[in-house]
Amino acid sequence: MSVSLPVTPIPTTQRVRHQEVARSTANYPPNIWGDRFLTYAPDDTVTQECKEQKIEELKEEVRKELKASAHKSPELLKLIDSIQLLGLTYHFEREIEQALKDMYGTYSPVDDNEDLTNASLRFRLLRQEGYRVPSDVFSKFKDKEGNFKESLIGGLPGMLALYEATHLMVHGEDILEEALAFTTAHLQSVATDPNNPLSKQVIRTLKLSIHNGVTRVGARHHISIYQEDGSHHESLLKLAKLDFNLLQSLHRKELSEITRWWKGLDFATKLPFARDRLVEIYFWALGVCFEPQYSLSLRFLTKVTIMLTMADDIYDAYGTIEELTLLTEAIERWDASSIDQLPDYMKCFYRALLDLYEEMEQEMAKEGKLYRVHYAKELMKKQIQSYFVEAKWLNQGYIPTFDEYMSNGVVSGCCSLLSATSFVGMGDIVTKESFQWVLSRPKMIGASQIICRLMDDMASHEFGQKRVHVASSVECYMKQYGVSKQEAYDELNKQVVKAWKDINQECLKPTPVLMPIITRVLNIARMMNIFYKDEDELTHVGKQMKDLIASILIDPVPM
């Protein structure tokens, strides 16, 4: 199998002396963490075992609560929602799956006794599980004129629940479009009211919905919210706190090991022009696969992504077209003997790239799953070729049409490569068909690619304009359609919204691959909301991102 694009052969005798070349650099801000995560002090064995035993005891208590709520629909809905928001779904997957299956089996959209809060929560939980719940369940909350009833405005829990439910919409669901406009307008009035005690919660909700958010970030926030809820389950709250802190310790240990690998490469010295963002990238990878059973995937995904960042900066901000031609050809051949033709600064990158995939091959050989690394490697080649296309456009001063840009940009946005990379260490649920599904570019992958490319471009557009930089989707759209920057942003944001509807549609049953596989792709799209919602937080790590990372990787939840 090959997914490679043709690369013009370059004579191996050609050499480029990089010290003689005038270069354009991006002047990226430095790493803000220093050696903060280099060392890790674990709990002693006895303490660790006590915590793990306590978690098992609390899990059993929560299972009993789930059983006790089985025939009490409002209580069960709230309990399942709390488990999910607290980041504990991976402990109760079978129980939640069965409960929602039973709920859907007895589901009736015509229930005049169900209030807006419960109707919205039921809709969201079932849609999240992939059930095709009809959106006209919300018709009963409209008046004779076809508008949502004004009486709903006074009930903030119902308005918030309906707002959250609308983010599961697919194409053609006009009633959910209307509900989104209705709830957004009234929630914004609450958000701007300094005297409303719930204004901060509403502001957070409007900024990022539950469905578009990521588990660990949401869990950290919701633990404090749940603690203030007078009707909370004490065993569930204790479990959430203990589990969060135990996972934080596990992630600190993993990050320490990856940091030692990263320091050993010494790219900060050898490639000083590139972004040193290991901690941010590990945090990003946590958003894709934080669960302990996917720790191998997390390690591979982090290492591949930091190597991609190096490659991106070599192609985008430092390498000459002659050097990049040599590197592209060397990666296409994927042969250690190709290293001799590269300039010195590229040699360390090329060697590290080959070593990383050899590490992956060694791990997968133990499980008889070498084929996975083959797919991942071929997608890496394709990724590098997309960077090279953009480098040639920049070298030629060429601004492609928007469609031409996007045909390459959906690849350079990394979604396919990162999805496949996350599959490599996921265990037996992944098959060859999982990788072939990615390569076939189904609507799920295509939509995620669009989200990754467009959100990245819009967030980094202003910084890109301050230096010599390849035209992004923003410039390409402005030029092709003769519109202003703001008009281009408006249109690209519409395309992101459409892509989310595609994703929601593809998550409905029956799915072409197992849901844990689809969830990795979904999480990659979700992480764009964390890093690229308003600005490029990977390149320019501000206080908000620093505090967010600290809350997940440094500061434990008070017990």
UniProtKB/TrEMBL annotation:
Ranges annotated as spanning the membrane: none
Domain Terpene synthase metal-binding: 263-502
Cofactor needs: Mg(2+)
Annotated InterPro entries: Isoprenoid_synthase_dom_sf, Terpene_cyclase-like_1_C, Terpene_cyclase_plant_C1, Terpene_synth_N, Terpene_synth_N_sf, Terpene_synthase-like, Terpene_synthase_metal-bd, Terpenoid_cyclase/PrenylTrfase
An annotated GO BP: diterpenoid biosynthetic process
Ranges for domain Terpene synthase N-terminal: 32-206
Pfam families named in the record: Terpene_synth, Terpene_synth_C
The organism's place on the tree of life at top rank: Eukaryota
Keywords recorded for this protein, A-Z: Lyase, Magnesium, Metal-binding
Claim: Metal-binding is one of the keywords in the record: yes
GO MF annotations, alphabetized: magnesium ion binding; terpene synthase activity
Name of the featured protein: Uncharacterized protein
